[in-house]
Design brief:
Elements: E1 6-17, E2 20-31, E3 35-39, H1 46-53, E4 63-71, E5 74-75, H2 82-88, E6 89-92, H3 103-113, H4 119-132, H5 136-139, H6 152-164, E7 170-174, H7 182-195, E8 200-204, H8 208-214, E9 217-222, E10 225-231, H9 232-235, H10 243-249
Parallel strand pairs: 3-8, 3-9, 6-7, 7-8
Antiparallel strand pairs: 1-2, 1-4, 4-5, 9-10
């Protein structure tokens, strides 16, 4: 793991909303083709951190970001084409956000927006992304149906398929399983294990056992500071470096 190239490098990152700092000068890296878990109690800054990666934090007029986040060596704060950046860093929200379009058009939306018109190419992208999201077999005969008519778990997998249609280098998932059943959660977890071969995955979760099942490395974020970052095996062992880590992963607090 340690010899993998760095995909995202964060240095002295600070984030404040209306002068109230929520991330306090944190530094870490995320390596290529790993699942990087981020755990911590509510209000620790986990979701805000993800929004800094693809600059959706820019939608908050009172947010102020300092420090640097480099994607493959390029400082995202200096990127001029923010839309291209967001294609490189896909995002899946806690609740499924289906566009009021057909299943097919949900997945084809981004490639079409990028100028792709050829139907056979679009067909191939839609099938590939739905297969990657473990949804193809369930919807292949009703691609013209509304995506919003799918079950909650299917809509979440459709959201993943739509994010993959950008062919992102990094896929960020923010509490993806908060509103879906355990069986569907396990199916998506299997999907993520397969996707790791092709992309880097950043997983924010309040389910510490989910991080334990999936993540190569896990970062414990608390009150906007990194308490501990190590291999997941160490974080969940009986001897993490920090006592707070031991107590949090065992449910003593949080």
């Amino acid at each position: 793991m340690s010899d993998r190239p760095i995909t995202i490098e964060v240095e002295d990152l600070r984030l404040a909303y209306a002068g109230r700092e929520v991330l306090h000068g944190i530094s870490f890296d995320i390596r290529r083709n790993e699942i990087f878990g981020i755990i911590g109690p509510a209000q620790s800054g986990k979701s805000s951190l993800l929004r800094c990666f693809n600059r959706t934090i820019d939608f908050e007029p009172d947010a102020r970001v300092t420090g640097s986040i480099r994607l493959e060596g390029e400082d995202v704060r200096r990127v001029r084409d923010v839309f291209a950046l967001r294609r490189r860093i896909g995002m899946v929200a806690p609740l499924p956000v289906g566009l009021p379009l057909t299943i097919y058009d949900n997945v084809a939306f981004a490639p079409r927006s990028a100028g792709l018109k050829n139907r056979s190419d679009l067909d191939a992208i839609v099938e590939r992304c739905l297969r990657q999201a473990a949804l193809w077999d369930e919807v292949k005969d009703r691609l013209a149906s509304l995506g919003t008519a799918l079950s909650g778990g299917q809509q979440q997998r459709l959201t993943i398929a739509r994010a993959l249609s950008h062919q992102p280098e990094v896929l960020c998932l923010d509490e993806f399983s908060i509103a879906i059943d355990p069986v569907t959660t396990m199916r998506i977890e299997d999907v993520l294990k397969e996707l790791r071969r092709d992309i880097t995955i950043v997983l924010v979760t309040n389910l510490v056992q989910q991080a334990r099942r999936l993540a190569d490395r896990t970062m414990f974020l608390w009150k906007g500071e990194i308490v501990e970052l190590d291999t997941t095996e160490v974080i969940f062992s009986d001897e993490p470096r920090e006592r707070h880590t031991f107590e949090y992963v065992r449910g003593i607090f949080g």
